[in-house]
Specification:
The protein is of the alpha+beta class and 98 residues long. It has a single domain (14-97), classed as OB fold (Dihydrolipoamide Acetyltransferase, E2P) (Beta Barrel). It is built from two helices and five strands. Strands 1-2-3-5-4 form a five-stranded mixed beta barrel. It is globular, with a radius of gyration of 15 Å. The chain starts with a helix and ends with a strand.
């Protein structure tokens, strides 16, 4: 029974970590992960048009639980520290560094 309770806690818990990647928009996704000037312009335009900001890292695009935390970094390469909810692929951002 103790083993089951421990495994259950791990399955639903969030995992704090640090990731490097690019803040992009949900519509275009990792297509703009290069953070070029043209990509930044597109990311900003899509987000202004209603697309949600997301985080592209490696081969994954992760949702952001608190997208306002990255509003100054649309289209930029950043390092995010936060908690990942693996069940929903959503990061709760604690800090962002360029």
């Amino acid at each position: 029974m103790k083993k089951f309770a421990f495994v259950s806690l791990l399955a639903v818990g969030a995992f704090a970590a640090e990731w490097s990647g690019t803040i992009v928009d949900e519509k275009c996704g990792a297509k703009h992960a290069d953070a070029s000037e043209a990509s930044q312009k597109c990311v900003n335009g899509c987000i202004k048009g209603g697309s949600a900001p997301v985080f592209a890292t490696g081969d994954k695009v992760l949702k952001l639980a608190n997208p306002d935390a990255v509003k100054d970094h649309y289209g930029h390469k950043v390092t995010i520290t936060g908690d990942l909810d693996a069940a929903t692929n959503t990061i709760t951002v604690k800090s962002v560094k360029m």
